[in-house]
Amino acid sequence: MEEKVIVCKDLTKQFGDFCAVDKISFDVSKGEIFGFLGANGAGKTTAMRILCGLSYPSSGEATVAGFSVKNQQESIKKNIGYMSQKFSLYENLSIRENIEFFGGVYGVSRKDIRERSDNLIQDLGLQKEANKLVGGLPLGWKQKLAFSVAIFHRPKIVFLDEPTGGVDPVTRRQFWDMIYDASASGITIFVTTHYMDEAEYCNRISVMVDGKMEALDSPANLKKQYATDSMDEAFYKLARGARRSGD
Amino acid sequence: MIMPATVSVQDLIKTYDKGKVLAVDKVSFEVKAGELFGLIGADGAGKSTIFRILTTVLLADSGSATLAGYDVVRDYREIRNRVGYMPGKFSLYQDLTVQENLEFFATVFGTTIEANMDLIKDIYDQIKPFSNRRAGKLSGGMKQKLALCCALIHKPEVLLLDEPTTGVDVVSRKEFWEMLKKLKAQGITIIVSTPYMDEAKLCERIALIQNGRIMSVDTPGNIIRAYPEKLFAAKSDDIYKLLKDFRNHPEVDRAFAFGEFIHISLKNAERTTLNAERSTLNAERSTLNAERTTVSSQLDILNRIAAENNHTGIQIKEIEPGIEDSFILLMGRNDITANP
Fold it and tell me: What is the pTM of this model?
């Protein structure tokens, strides 16, 4: 019996008349790399915020790492990692200071912080930069560092919101190497992306259209279903009929 | 005298932070009149800096640039009247309505919305239903369309679009490129920057840029044709292990993940061709051509590596390289690693 890290049933979020998330149901198993796709305005960000314990659902239920999104939001936050393009690290703190800060916030012991941060800095080859401000790092390096910090406290699941936007093709792939390694170590990965080749790296993907979950399957099966060998085509066919293209 | 709307950039250098950050490193390229030219590169490659120099809002440290024959430093006023610019950020007034934004830009350029309606009609029709909505309340795709209209309102000779499709959904991206093709048909010179490699092939010619340096300027077709080795796509039931197995093998030159497949090239791929040709000539065999022998022997090698590592569901085939393959190759050739 596979352990489920996310269980979601009829999750709904309404803003007045507007139904941003419309009765979505799905599960994510431990160690899975799960791609959460959808065009802008489809309801992805709203759904992710609920799953991260940042927003209350209007109806329906979901548990993340075993905790309810309705009344155990603080426990969810302690057990997940999060990284997005918009916010990842403090630009005016050094690399070491950022690691120590986030480690501390997530309750990692001082000893573990010291040991893990040395390993992290070494693995990323940032020994010379460790005491420099994060703001001075090239984007690709910030992204890789942010990911490492997001899983520093060994969370059960890490949420990645378009982590590789705008980054060069080599760094993108190095980033996915890191994702694979994390997944192999038992961390569940929940990732959104606009790069369709990245959708292929996922075990399963879901596609949200106008608040509903219109697809939930492996990339291979979805391509078969839409009679194409390109994820790009399959996604386009799904997203094309959408009425909403909100921000 | 009407100057053709070409763009010429010569040895442009720009640094930030008192010379500590080299953003643009001796960049040169030419854009022909009426061309759809792409500046392809990741964030931080120097694309926005180049655009700001071309639109005369930033001065380069050294080097020169001209648009339609006008110098970016000496003749900045003439350029500002002839260029349409979509800077990606801060291009619209969020608290003005669609209509108010259009009227504002029209007045600033001393024209009216109606004056050049034929140019923007297709795009304008899509945002017209939202005429009284504030720009800040529009979706990403709609903001792009409005910003494009505002950039076209004075019938510019050169259109500079800085990452117009970043952060915009897949459907709107496709629509945007359709609009660009129509604009090009009207004779406007368009320079567009993008980090999306798949958009590169929609341009007539492209410049691949990384870390402030131009790695190549050519048509997408020529860049792909110049790819020096045979490229193969492989997959198996354990694709991540396959990637590692290939990378660890001494005969493999490069292996990169590309969605469902791994793209691989072997070391000495070129030399293998020469040896095969020589042995064919020497043996005076005429049936097998060197090409086919080479491909099948490389396929054999790759299949062998996969089988040796106990992979199941192995599929390997020769493929045509794409722009992303070329970009990665050029990054390595120019010794531009992703490391700081």
Answer: 0.84
